[in-house]
Amino acid sequence: MTSLPAHKNVVLVGHSIGGLAISKAMELFPGKISGAVFVAGLMPGPNINASTVYIEVPNFHIPIFSHEIICYAMQCVEDVSNEIILSRKRYGSIRRAFVVTPEDKLLKKEFQQLMIERNPPDEVKEIQGADHMVMMSKPHELFKFLLRFADKGLTHVSVATV
Predict the structure, then answer these.
(1) 3 lies in a domain?
(2) Whose CB has fewer CB within 10 Å in the chain, the N or C terminal residue?
């Protein structure tokens, strides 16, 4: 982000745990980010911190996944959650969207809705029939939404995914 030319901005896209990474970037570099899209992503914010998101995930995952896989995946989240403190002034100044994946077998729709309610984004897009890997289950719908989001009145924008 620091090497990005001054006249260029990016739209960040974070999927799943990548939502934490783009949240941290939003807090650190708000002047370089035109927007952020959380695609079935963990979306902390001033009203729902990363630690709370981490604690809530086990309550909403689908039990067909083994406990060991969930714990392994979430171990890095616990470490990162202590570093992510988000402010309304920086993080909150960036336009956000959340892509809901109703057929998600990892993060239930109820958990996605909880994050949306506690940290309302500017836009919510539900992609019918999408599962956790929406880029595989509904790639065209996701791509069209990302393009539309990035094009909304923005110039000199690059899309970076996490």
Answers:
(1) no
(2) N
